[in-house]
Design brief:
Helix content is 41%, strand content 37%. It is α+β, with helices and mostly antiparallel strands. It has one domain (11-127).
Length: 128
């Protein structure tokens, strides 16, 4: 802050234009950092929420498969979605033939929207 003497002996106090410009630049840089942090936090939160939904839907679908039992589980591939709650989340289930130990492998792929594209997550289990 600078002071300037006047003709009557009073001093005018105030900020110079340079001081105001420097303060404005400092505030702008600080706000830019805060906005970047909020943006990154928002993206990370969306990904974490998507991962949580994916895990829940996979557990739900695999539990349905276990409840169905081997004898009612057709060998081959089936597809669908998780309507009405999550119609954008698609699933693809592949049931393999039993191996020599009579163990059946089941592969589940869940496709979910994420950042304007689709992300696939794979799960596998074995049925004895």
């Amino acid at each position: 802050m600078s002071s300037t003497p006047t003709q009557r002996g009073f001093t005018l106090r105030g900020f110079t234009l340079v001081e105001v410009l420097v303060a404005t630049v400092v505030v702008a840089i600080g706000l830019l950092g805060v906005l970047t942090a909020f943006s990154m936090a928002s993206r990370v939160t969306a990904v974490a929420q998507n991962d949580t939904v994916l895990s829940f839907l996979a557990q739900q679908r695999l539990a349905e498969i276990q409840l169905l039992g081997r004898e009612h589980l057709p060998i081959g591939t089936a597809e669908g979605n998780f309507s009405p709650e999550f119609p954008d989340y698609l699933w693809r289930l592949t049931v393999h033939s039993p191996n020599v130990l009579n163990v059946q492998r089941v592969d589940l792929v869940i496709s979910a929207p994420e950042a304007g594209r689709r992300r696939e997550t794979r799960f596998s289990t074995a049925i004895f």
